[in-house]
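User: Assemble these into one structure.

Assistant: Restating your components, then the assembled model:
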Amino acid sequence: MKIHMEQEILQENEDQARMNHEMFGNTLVLNLIGSPGCGKTTILEKTLDALAGEFRIGVIEGDIYTAKDAERIEKKNIPVVQCNTAGGCHLSAGITAKAAEDLPLADLDILFIENVGNLVCPAEFDLGEDAKIAVLSTVEGDDKPAKYPLLFQEAKAVILNKWDLMPYTNFDGDSAEHDISALNGDAPIIRMTAASGEGIERWLEWIRVQAAAKREQDS
Amino acid sequence: MKIHMEQEILQENEDQARMNHEMFGNTLVLNLIGSPGCGKTTILEKTLDALAGEFRIGVIEGDIYTAKDAERIEKKNIPVVQCNTAGGCHLSAGITAKAAEDLPLADLDILFIENVGNLVCPAEFDLGEDAKIAVLSTVEGDDKPAKYPLLFQEAKAVILNKWDLMPYTNFDGDSAEHDISALNGDAPIIRMTAASGEGIERWLEWIRVQAAAKREQDS
């Protein structure tokens, strides 16, 4: 019975996600997913610093409670909407559609969605995005891709963040990358220290290619 | 409609949790909850090393996939059962009851349950345990108690792990403890570096007090 209900919710979400994708139109939509504290907001801040002059960018911030992340992003002077799920452990396509109503979608080249901090549930719920981005920090351990495979299977790019902290952990970068590649041979794996900006150039380049492909596809 | 279904699932879980609590009898049951990579398994390993001569201990390992954690615990030569939720983001009382059938409950003083790595959903699902233990690592950031309050409200003890990594982060220990105390004035907050064993003594002492109280209560 539980499974049946879950399938209903997932089906309803898929239908709304398809409508969202239409609604997003020419805007490239990237959905950042990872554990609490893996560095999603910091990656977003650095990305906005680097790309704000090049693209028109908007952000949807997903959190269970508080507007702490949206407040950080607001300082970048770009349109941002905070969604609070009030207990919910992931964004849904419905919540995302409502948040997008408050953004000037037609004027945006790129919309970043920062999902609720959770390595599990957000991977199950399409929001109508062009790509899910998996963020894993080295301090979480190299066993996480094998233990939480869905996100890494679904992702179009994987960021291994907090690379600078690796010497203080037992994280084996080669082992993690091996496991990720076994789950998903297509997604680039990007080593990064978002706090210092190290390694971010490859991520920016990946975004530029996606944005160009999106323009191409929609013209 | 969604909320209604969720309430049904939660109610069903509460009923089973009450039955589990009966079934656990004299055994003290501690449910460890925290993000992927916050250090739950390492805390458990160190705790088993310290307490295995003093108490008869069993472990239920919850994971979405793999038996990596159970394999680590098995090396300690204590009874351990691995539960795989196959996609599910938390243990339920039903899954826990089935796992407990494979343990010699009547012969255990303490049963540790390591929940699926997730700061959100496991806090909503009682398993019939005596106490939920919240584990937060410093590398996750000091804003997490305010952003994910439920677990910190429900916990009977809070471990701030990876204390040794704090100098490499912007984690403010006082701010985190202030936010936790505002959510929950009763739970002790235990600073720990499980990997080295630093700070673990206060945690062991807390367990001893709980185990004594449980024996008292059941006799």
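The two ends of chain A are 45 Å apart (CA to CA).
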